[in-house]
Protein backbone atom coordinates (compact mmCIF):
# COMPACT_ATOMS: atom_id res chain seq x y z
CA UNK A 1 0.00 0.00 0.00
CA UNK A 2 1.36 3.47 -0.83
CA UNK A 3 2.46 5.06 2.43
CA UNK A 4 2.70 8.67 3.56
CA UNK A 5 5.96 9.41 1.66
CA UNK A 6 4.47 8.05 -1.57
CA UNK A 7 1.32 10.13 -1.09
CA UNK A 8 3.33 13.25 -0.23
CA UNK A 9 5.52 12.71 -3.29
CA UNK A 10 2.36 12.50 -5.39
CA UNK A 11 0.97 15.67 -3.78
CA UNK A 12 4.13 17.66 -4.47
CA UNK A 13 4.18 16.53 -8.07
CA UNK A 14 0.51 17.31 -8.63
CA UNK A 15 0.84 20.72 -6.99
CA UNK A 16 3.07 21.92 -9.82
CA UNK A 17 0.78 20.55 -12.52
CA UNK A 18 -2.84 21.16 -11.48
CA UNK A 19 -2.97 24.15 -9.10
CA UNK A 20 -5.13 26.97 -10.55
CA UNK A 21 -6.20 24.80 -13.47
CA UNK A 22 -9.86 24.75 -14.53
CA UNK A 23 -11.67 21.44 -14.91
CA UNK A 24 -13.30 21.13 -18.34
CA UNK A 25 -14.94 17.77 -17.80
CA UNK A 26 -15.13 14.87 -15.34
CA UNK A 27 -15.19 11.23 -16.44
CA UNK A 28 -16.07 8.21 -14.28
CA UNK A 29 -15.15 4.96 -16.01
CA UNK A 30 -15.64 2.61 -13.07
CA UNK A 31 -18.02 3.90 -10.44
CA UNK A 32 -17.43 1.23 -7.79
CA UNK A 33 -14.01 1.38 -6.18
CA UNK A 34 -13.72 0.85 -2.42
CA UNK A 35 -16.78 3.05 -2.29
CA UNK A 36 -18.83 4.45 -5.14
CA UNK A 37 -17.52 7.59 -6.80
CA UNK A 38 -20.25 10.24 -6.40
CA UNK A 39 -21.93 10.70 -9.78
CA UNK A 40 -22.64 14.37 -9.02
CA UNK A 41 -18.95 15.15 -9.50
CA UNK A 42 -19.53 15.36 -13.26
CA UNK A 43 -21.61 18.47 -12.72
CA UNK A 44 -20.18 19.68 -9.40
CA UNK A 45 -16.61 20.03 -10.65
CA UNK A 46 -17.22 21.13 -14.22
CA UNK A 47 -15.69 24.58 -14.89
CA UNK A 48 -14.31 24.78 -11.34
CA UNK A 49 -10.74 25.85 -10.52
CA UNK A 50 -8.44 23.70 -8.39
CA UNK A 51 -7.34 26.10 -5.65
CA UNK A 52 -4.68 23.92 -4.05
CA UNK A 53 -3.85 20.33 -3.14
CA UNK A 54 -3.09 19.14 0.38
CA UNK A 55 -2.63 15.86 2.23
CA UNK A 56 -4.16 14.50 5.43
CA UNK A 57 -2.64 11.18 6.48
CA UNK A 58 -2.69 9.14 3.25
CA UNK A 59 -5.55 11.12 1.69
CA UNK A 60 -5.06 13.70 -1.05
CA UNK A 61 -7.40 16.68 -0.94
CA UNK A 62 -8.09 18.84 -4.00
CA UNK A 63 -9.53 22.14 -2.77
CA UNK A 64 -12.36 24.03 -4.45
CA UNK A 65 -14.41 27.06 -3.41
CA UNK A 66 -17.18 24.91 -1.95
CA UNK A 67 -15.55 21.64 -0.95
CA UNK A 68 -12.76 19.12 -1.43
CA UNK A 69 -12.21 16.10 -3.62
CA UNK A 70 -10.78 13.42 -1.32
CA UNK A 71 -8.68 10.72 -2.97
CA UNK A 72 -6.98 7.64 -1.50
CA UNK A 73 -4.58 5.45 -3.49
CA UNK A 74 -5.66 2.23 -1.80
CA UNK A 75 -3.47 -0.84 -2.36
CA UNK A 76 -2.20 -0.18 -5.87
CA UNK A 77 -3.48 3.23 -6.94
CA UNK A 78 -1.55 6.01 -8.62
CA UNK A 79 -2.35 9.42 -10.08
CA UNK A 80 -0.74 10.85 -13.18
CA UNK A 81 -1.10 13.99 -15.27
CA UNK A 82 -0.78 13.34 -18.99
CA UNK A 83 -1.82 14.84 -22.30
CA UNK A 84 -5.52 14.45 -23.04
CA UNK A 85 -4.52 12.87 -26.33
CA UNK A 86 -2.69 10.00 -24.63
CA UNK A 87 -4.66 6.74 -24.94
CA UNK A 88 -6.53 5.71 -21.83
CA UNK A 89 -4.76 2.84 -20.06
CA UNK A 90 -6.51 -0.14 -18.54
CA UNK A 91 -7.60 0.42 -14.92
CA UNK A 92 -7.99 4.20 -15.24
CA UNK A 93 -11.29 4.68 -13.39
CA UNK A 94 -11.51 8.45 -12.94
CA UNK A 95 -10.32 11.41 -15.00
CA UNK A 96 -10.33 15.20 -14.77
CA UNK A 97 -9.72 16.93 -18.10
CA UNK A 98 -8.12 20.32 -17.54
CA UNK A 99 -8.04 23.58 -19.45
CA UNK A 100 -4.46 23.16 -20.68
CA UNK A 101 -5.26 19.94 -22.58
CA UNK A 102 -3.90 17.70 -19.84
CA UNK A 103 -5.75 15.11 -17.78
CA UNK A 104 -5.46 13.98 -14.19
CA UNK A 105 -6.02 10.22 -14.24
CA UNK A 106 -6.63 7.88 -11.31
CA UNK A 107 -5.27 4.39 -12.02
CA UNK A 108 -6.12 1.54 -9.64
CA UNK A 109 -5.87 -2.12 -10.75
CA UNK A 110 -7.14 -3.57 -7.46
CA UNK A 111 -9.85 -0.92 -6.97
CA UNK A 112 -9.24 -0.45 -3.24
CA UNK A 113 -8.73 3.28 -3.72
CA UNK A 114 -11.40 5.93 -3.34
CA UNK A 115 -12.64 9.20 -4.80
CA UNK A 116 -15.01 11.02 -2.47
CA UNK A 117 -16.47 14.50 -1.96
CA UNK A 118 -16.36 16.60 1.21
CA UNK A 119 -18.49 19.73 1.47
CA UNK A 120 -16.93 22.88 2.92
CA UNK A 121 -18.91 22.65 6.15
CA UNK A 122 -18.39 18.91 6.67
CA UNK A 123 -15.63 16.46 7.59
CA UNK A 124 -15.76 12.93 6.25
CA UNK A 125 -15.83 10.22 8.91
CA UNK A 126 -12.63 8.88 7.37
CA UNK A 127 -10.81 12.06 8.40
CA UNK A 128 -12.27 12.39 11.89
CA UNK A 129 -10.31 11.34 14.98
CA UNK A 130 -7.01 11.08 13.14
CA UNK A 131 -3.84 11.61 15.13
CA UNK A 132 -1.27 14.31 14.38
CA UNK A 133 0.80 14.44 11.22
CA UNK A 134 4.22 12.93 11.98
CA UNK A 135 6.12 15.81 10.38
CA UNK A 136 4.13 18.49 12.18
CA UNK A 137 4.84 20.32 15.43
CA UNK A 138 1.79 18.60 16.92
CA UNK A 139 3.72 15.33 16.91
CA UNK A 140 6.13 16.34 19.65
CA UNK A 141 8.19 14.71 22.40
CA UNK A 142 5.10 14.16 24.55
CA UNK A 143 2.79 12.56 21.97
CA UNK A 144 3.90 8.94 22.11
CA UNK A 145 4.52 8.96 25.85
CA UNK A 146 1.11 10.40 26.72
CA UNK A 147 -0.68 8.05 24.32
CA UNK A 148 1.15 4.95 25.57
CA UNK A 149 -0.02 4.98 29.21
CA UNK A 150 -1.29 1.51 30.08
CA UNK A 151 -0.88 0.19 26.55
CA UNK A 152 0.23 -3.45 26.42
CA UNK A 153 0.24 -3.69 22.62
CA UNK A 154 3.59 -3.95 20.86
CA UNK A 155 5.26 -0.69 19.95
CA UNK A 156 5.17 -1.38 16.21
CA UNK A 157 1.39 -1.70 16.04
CA UNK A 158 1.13 1.25 18.43
CA UNK A 159 2.96 3.68 16.13
CA UNK A 160 0.99 2.34 13.17
CA UNK A 161 -2.29 3.34 14.85
CA UNK A 162 -3.65 6.36 12.97
CA UNK A 163 -5.33 7.56 16.17
CA UNK A 164 -1.87 7.93 17.72
CA UNK A 165 -0.02 9.35 14.70
CA UNK A 166 -0.95 9.14 11.04
CA UNK A 167 1.05 7.79 8.15
CA UNK A 168 3.53 5.44 9.86
CA UNK A 169 2.92 2.39 7.70
CA UNK A 170 4.34 -1.10 8.07
CA UNK A 171 7.65 -0.60 6.29
CA UNK A 172 8.45 2.79 7.78
CA UNK A 173 7.51 1.54 11.26
CA UNK A 174 10.19 -1.16 11.00
CA UNK A 175 12.71 1.37 9.71
CA UNK A 176 11.93 3.87 12.47
CA UNK A 177 12.24 1.29 15.24
CA UNK A 178 15.57 0.15 13.83
CA UNK A 179 16.88 3.71 13.80
CA UNK A 180 15.71 4.18 17.41
CA UNK A 181 17.23 0.79 18.46
CA UNK A 182 13.88 -0.32 19.92
CA UNK A 183 12.62 -3.88 19.56
CA UNK A 184 9.25 -4.03 17.77
CA UNK A 185 8.16 -6.57 20.40
CA UNK A 186 8.40 -4.13 23.32
CA UNK A 187 5.15 -3.16 25.05
CA UNK A 188 4.38 0.45 24.23
CA UNK A 189 3.42 1.33 27.80
CA UNK A 190 6.70 0.05 29.25
CA UNK A 191 9.10 2.09 27.13
CA UNK A 192 10.66 5.10 28.95
CA UNK A 193 9.83 8.57 27.71
CA UNK A 194 13.42 9.33 26.71
CA UNK A 195 13.40 6.37 24.33
CA UNK A 196 10.01 7.36 22.91
CA UNK A 197 11.44 10.81 22.19
CA UNK A 198 14.22 9.11 20.23
CA UNK A 199 11.57 7.10 18.37
CA UNK A 200 9.61 10.27 17.61
CA UNK A 201 12.67 11.82 16.00
CA UNK A 202 13.43 8.57 14.16
CA UNK A 203 9.94 8.54 12.64
CA UNK A 204 10.39 12.11 11.47
CA UNK A 205 13.82 11.36 10.00
CA UNK A 206 12.80 8.16 8.22
CA UNK A 207 9.72 9.75 6.63
CA UNK A 208 11.62 12.89 5.65
CA UNK A 209 14.35 10.81 4.00
CA UNK A 210 11.74 8.77 2.16
CA UNK A 211 10.03 11.89 0.82
CA UNK A 212 13.37 13.38 -0.25
CA UNK A 213 14.17 10.15 -2.08
CA UNK A 214 10.88 10.17 -3.99
CA UNK A 215 8.96 7.72 -1.85
CA UNK A 216 8.43 4.28 -2.65
CA UNK A 217 8.41 0.93 -1.10
CA UNK A 218 6.26 -0.78 -3.72
CA UNK A 219 7.12 -2.33 -7.04
CA UNK A 220 4.00 -0.94 -8.70
CA UNK A 221 4.15 2.57 -7.27
CA UNK A 222 5.17 5.41 -9.55
CA UNK A 223 5.40 9.16 -9.17
CA UNK A 224 3.21 11.62 -11.02
CA UNK A 225 5.66 11.60 -13.92
CA UNK A 226 5.50 7.82 -14.12
CA UNK A 227 8.99 7.21 -12.74
CA UNK A 228 9.50 4.87 -9.77
CA UNK A 229 10.62 6.16 -6.40
CA UNK A 230 13.98 5.14 -5.00
CA UNK A 231 13.67 4.82 -1.23
CA UNK A 232 13.46 1.02 -1.48
CA UNK A 233 17.16 1.05 -2.38
CA UNK A 234 18.19 2.43 1.02
CA UNK A 235 15.97 0.48 3.43
CA UNK A 236 17.94 -0.60 6.50
CA UNK A 237 15.95 -3.61 7.70
CA UNK A 238 12.77 -4.18 5.75
CA UNK A 239 13.07 -7.10 3.36
CA UNK A 240 16.57 -7.99 4.65
CA UNK A 241 15.73 -11.21 6.52
CA UNK A 242 18.90 -13.20 7.25
CA UNK A 243 21.22 -10.45 6.07
CA UNK A 244 23.83 -8.73 8.22
CA UNK A 245 22.72 -5.75 10.27
CA UNK A 246 24.08 -2.49 8.88
CA UNK A 247 24.85 -1.31 12.42
CA UNK A 248 26.26 -4.37 14.19
CA UNK A 249 27.24 -7.92 13.28
CA UNK A 250 23.81 -9.31 14.08
CA UNK A 251 21.38 -10.87 11.61
CA UNK A 252 18.11 -9.28 10.53
CA UNK A 253 15.12 -11.37 11.58
CA UNK A 254 11.61 -11.47 10.15
CA UNK A 255 8.60 -12.06 12.41
CA UNK A 256 4.85 -11.65 11.94
CA UNK A 257 3.03 -9.11 14.10
CA UNK A 258 -0.65 -8.42 13.72
CA UNK A 259 -0.57 -10.30 10.40
CA UNK A 260 2.15 -8.00 9.06
CA UNK A 261 5.82 -8.66 8.36
CA UNK A 262 8.26 -7.07 10.78
CA UNK A 263 12.03 -6.90 10.27
CA UNK A 264 14.49 -6.05 13.05
CA UNK A 265 17.90 -6.84 14.51
CA UNK A 266 17.55 -8.81 17.78
CA UNK A 267 21.09 -7.89 18.76
CA UNK A 268 20.95 -4.08 18.68
CA UNK A 269 17.20 -3.47 19.04
CA UNK A 270 16.05 -3.98 22.60
The major pleated sheet works out as: 4 strands, antiparallel
Task: Determine the fraction of residues in helical runs and give it as a percent range.
Answer: 10-25%
Average per-residue pLDDT, rounded, comes to 91
Global outline = elongated
Strand arrangement in the largest pleated sheet: 1-6-7-5
Q: Provide the succession of SSEs.
A: HEHEEEEEEEHHHHEE
- Alpha-carbon distance between the two ends: 28 Å
Number of helices: 6
Strand content: 15-25%
Low-confidence stretches: 216-221
Task: Give me the count of strands.
Answer: 10
Structural features:
single chain; 270 residues; alpha+beta; four-stranded antiparallel beta sheet; 6 helices; 21% strand
Describe the protein's architecture and organization:
The chain has 270 residues and is α+β, with helices and mostly antiparallel strands. Helix content is 22%, strand content 21%. It is built from six helices and ten strands; from the N terminus they run H-E-H-E-E-E-E-E-E-E-H-H-H-H-E-E. It has helices at residues 4-18, 41-44, 143-147, 155-159, 170-180, 193-212, and strands at residues 23-28, 52-56, 59-64, 67-72, 78-83, 92-98, 102-107, 114-119, 253-257, 260-264. The strands form three sheets. The chain has a four-stranded antiparallel β-sheet. Helix 1 (4-18) packs across helix 6 (193-212) and helix 5 (170-180) packs across helix 6. The longest helix is centred in the C-terminal third of the chain and has 20 residues, at 193-212. It is elongated, with a radius of gyration of 20 Å.
Amino acid sequence: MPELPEVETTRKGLELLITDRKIISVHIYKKKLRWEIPSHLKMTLKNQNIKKISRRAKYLLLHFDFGKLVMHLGMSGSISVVSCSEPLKKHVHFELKLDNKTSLRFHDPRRFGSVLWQKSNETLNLLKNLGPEPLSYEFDEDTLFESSFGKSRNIKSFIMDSNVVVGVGNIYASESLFLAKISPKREAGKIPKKRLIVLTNSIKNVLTDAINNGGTTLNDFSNVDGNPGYFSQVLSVYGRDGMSCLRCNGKIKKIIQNQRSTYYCPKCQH
